[in-house]
Amino acid sequence: MKIIYDHKEFQNRTKPINDHLDLCGIVPDTLIGHFFCARLPELIQYCKTHPQYHIMSILPNQVKANRLVETARLFVLAEGDADPGLWYSMSYEDLKIYEFNCS
Asked: What is the rounded CA–CA span in Å between residue 42 and residue 95?
């Protein structure tokens, strides 16, 4: 697991898709590329048919996991480094509540 505290570094590595025009065949629920949890089965299927993308999970306090965390409320498709061990957090304190998801 690698915790990244610099948001720009995390974005540059994972390359989340924030513009729905960059996606073919799927439209996010928000203008900034977020998908709500009800769309998770569709996202999983989309990534199977479009392996250049992977799912990132957005957790409370803007903690971001570069992998699927099914209990998350928001998800984003990304096209960069798919290392599931990458996490973004503003602080260690914000990340501590996800300690059990990190292993």
From this structure: 28
Give CA torsion, residues 46, 39, 44, 8, to 10 deg. 90
Helix (H) or strand (E) holding 95: helix 92-96
Q: Please state whether the predicted TM-score (pTM) of the whole model is above 0.90.
A: no
Buried b (16+ CB within 10 A) or exposed e, 66-103: bbbbeebebbbbbebebeeebbbbeeeeebeebeebee
Assign 61 to helix, strand or coil: helix
Q: Would you say 27 and 39 are in contact if contact means Cβ atoms under 8 Å apart?
A: no
Percent of the chain's residues with pLDDT above 70: 85
